[in-house]
Amino acid sequence: MNVGTPALVAAAAAIAAVAIAALIRFRARLPLAGVNERTLHVAPIPRVGGLAIWAGFFPIALLAPAPATMAPASWIIPWLLLFLVSLRDDVKSVGIVTRLAVHVIAAAWFAIVLAGTSGVELPAWGIVLAALTCAWSLNLYNFMDGSDGLAATMALVGFTAYGIVLLCRGEAPALPLILAATMIPLLFVNRPPARMFLGDVGAVPLGFLAAAFGIAGVAGGAWPAWFPLLVFLPFIADASVTLVRRMLAGERFWQSHRSHYYQRLHQLGAGHGGTLAAWGALMAGSAGTAVACASGKRGLMLDSHDFGGSREDRVEPVEDRGVVELATHAVHSSAALVRRLLDRGTDRGDKSIDIERIDQNRAFNFAQITYANQGTENTGWLNQTFIQRAAASVPGMEVRGLLDEQNSTFVTNATHRIDAQATADKVSETPTLLIGKTGSKLKKVSSTAPFDAAELAAAIRSAG
Question: Model confidence over 246-272: pLDDT tens digits?
């Protein structure tokens, strides 16, 4: 974690706390959430507590480091549109057509800008899917903000989960952690019995950012597509199933109601406290499972070493299961890495990028992508555009930091050490593959190209 991240998180929480205190001080002047057929309350409650979370989040978010796909350029304008129309709706009701139009524009804006500025190419159907996901998420989050502490707790758990996985993947975690931190002071007034609600100004932009950050993480390779769905599953499942159930029953599904599962639990006698306890457990279990699965190592990866003379990247022997697949992957990775180390033609100039990928513990993944997409030798195919696109395809790769560091002293020195190590190991042709257990002497495998998968599998078993 960047040394500045804890300070940014603390600053956001502190500003939100001050804003909460100010809202409580002037609560008599705030718009109220009335009692109707949808609400579970018996008295009007101030409804713009969301102002406090945005007071803490927005200015700090502009200062925080973020993965390329989560940069403010993609979400700040849509967020602002949603903030303004939702605030207006809290103060003075906005017509449903106007609200939905702004929702659609904001969602489409995010999807189009993400595809155009993040360095990740999205097909047309991907842009449409991203926009629809955002539009549904911002509405479902508002639907679920009907019981004390529910939406704030989901945001605290969900955005914390995003931050944890970004941290585990070597990406900047500040943005979601800052947003999660603003929920803590809010919960002091939003927990049962609530003295203030999020309001549309809080719930709608929160639902948008839950989807936007989730999609951005998928696009940037920080996590798989199922991860944000599992993190926010308690909200997604309740709102989605309820909507489908009401549509199938022929009900006017666009009207307010009290048939969400959290509302039914409340009416069965759980009350606000019991409902929050039950849903909080679901949130923790769902998000915790998602984090545990997404933050672990995925697939085969070469060990990350600094090539300092006595340490090399090596393929570890494994059980027979999947050994042919291992062999194929090992060939791709080793051939690409050694080709880059020895090539003296025009495609050698970006060897520093390999060093930086090794430093991020992503050397194997990058090598495999590079090898599978390589062009003709000495044609200049290995350029910055190729490197950026290949790096963006590697789960967990921090592309911006990698590009910034390619000319650093660390990378330059490591490049010289790699050349010296290749010479010492008598690596003189491409591809060359050395196999052995960690700590043991590496054994050279046949350098015939292409490698025979069965021969390589046998060599891996023999090394074990």
Answer: 888 887 776 777 777 778 888 888 888
**Claim to verify: residue 243 and residue 344 sit in the same structural domain:** no
**Is the full-model pTM beyond 0.70?**
no
Q: Does one domain contain both 257 and 350?
A: no
Element (H, E) at 276: helix 271-294
Domain end point (choices 276, 294, 312): 294
Q: With left for phi above 0 and alpha for psi between -120 and 50, is residue 67 left, alpha or beta?
A: beta
Confidence category of residue 410, pLDDT binned at 50, 70, 90:
low
Q: Do 331 and 288 reside in the same domain of the chain?
A: no
Same domain, 278 and 381: no
For residues 16-36, give the mean pLDDT.
83
Task: Give residue 156's pLDDT.
Answer: 97
Q: Under a CB-based contact definition with an 8 Å cutoff, are residues 90 and 199 in contact?
A: yes
Q: Is residue 175 domain-resident? A: yes
The residues, any chain, with a CB within 8 Å of residue 390's CB and separated by 6 or more, are 366, 369, 370, 373
**Tokens standing for 296?**
């672990």
Q: Which residue has the higher pLDDT, 325 or 284?
A: 284
Domains identified in the chain, total number = 2
* Rg from Cα positions in the chain: 26
- Domain assignment present for residue 132? The answer is yes
Domain that holds residue 416: 323-463
Q: What are phi and psi of 443, to 5 degrees?
A: -115, 130
Instruction: Tell me how far the alpha carbon of residue 313 is from its chain's centroid.
Output: 28
Q: What is the pLDDT of residues 421-458, one digit of tens each?
A: 777 777 777 667 777 777 677 777 765 555 666 777 77
